[in-house]
Amino acid sequence: MCAHITYGLVAVLLGVFVLTTTDAQTKSQSKQKKTTQLKAAEKARADSIAAVVRADSILRVEQAKALDDSIKRADSLAAIKRIELRKLTNEAFGVGEQLVFSVNYGFITAGEAMMAIPGYDSVAGRNCYRIEFTVTSLPSFSWIYKVEDRYLTFIDVEAIVPWKFEQHIREGTYKRDFIAEFDQINHVARTTEGDYPIPEYVHDIMSAFYYARTLDFSGMKAGDGITMHNFYKDTSHELRVKFLGRQELNIEAGTFRTIVVEPLVKEGGLFKSEGRIVIWLSDDERKIPVRVNTKVLIGSIDVELKSYSGIVGPLPARIK
Q1: Domain ranges in the chain?
Q2: Which of 38, 102, 104, 113 has most Cβ atoms within 10 angstroms of its Cβ?
């Protein structure tokens, strides 16, 4: 019996010891766990603070760079505004003008073209005319050769020079997209194909045409001409517009007295030319294009004025 009591006491004591030991171990492990958790929390907090500091540092650098870029852009625009460009008198065209043409290939009416000045845009801090030119083949001709060409130029209202030019050509399987920004202050053309030096008051082919409309041809005789610079692709070309004479012309839009001119550089033109381009302009201050004839690889293209609207003044050259 004593032995049983002894065994019982031993068992109880062992049980207490085990419980005590286990409890101590549990407490120790719990303490270690809490310590580990505290250390992990402290590390996470430190990492979080470090990440915030890094992010703040990066943000400050980016903000400083953005501010610096903004200041540079502002300085550049301010410089453009400070520098005096030429100021030309323009009584030839203005916002709202729209000219619609039929495009004839031989005896076939192949398409329609439109030149329009829908409004103003600000480019490089300068007030500009936004001028659009589109050529679209008619459905009856598109199955032979589909054309969807679009040109844009942004011409300085005062200086009549371009600040930006876009060309988007879709002709058959041929596709081309070209954009040029003209820095008329630093004389650089920044294009989708590279940066190139340009002369003073350089033109794209569209702005050259509108600039020519502002000129006075009244005192010219056959063979006289004017010269300007035309940029296309990666090169500036000398563009001479030769005065050929005067002619009365009867077309769909009416009968006009016209002056006849010939641009002597074909590269970068509104049509792919293999020969002469001859242009008939109304013989008055508006000088709207009445007809264009150009030789192409096979045959010729005639573009004739169908209708017009939004002209800035009267057309005394229209006889009837």
Answers
A1: 1-82, 98-309
A2: 113
> Distance between CA 156 and CA 84 in Å, rounded?
12
pLDDT of residue 89: 94
- Global pTM value: 0.73
Give CA–CA dist 235/180, Å, rounded. Answer: 12
Q: Could you tell me the two tokens for 307?
A: 């209708």
Distance CA 94, CA 102 (A): 22
- Measured at the CA of 231, the angle between CA 133 and CA 136, to 5 degrees, comes to 20
- DSSP string of 265-297, one letter each residue: --TT-SS--SS-EEEEEESSSS--EEEEEEE-S
CA distance 273 to 269: 8
Give 6-59 pLDDT, tens digit per residue: 334 333 333 333 333 344 444 455 556 666 766 666 776 667 666 655 765 666
CA distance 268 to 266: 6
Half-sphere exposure of 318 (CA within 13 A, CB side): 17
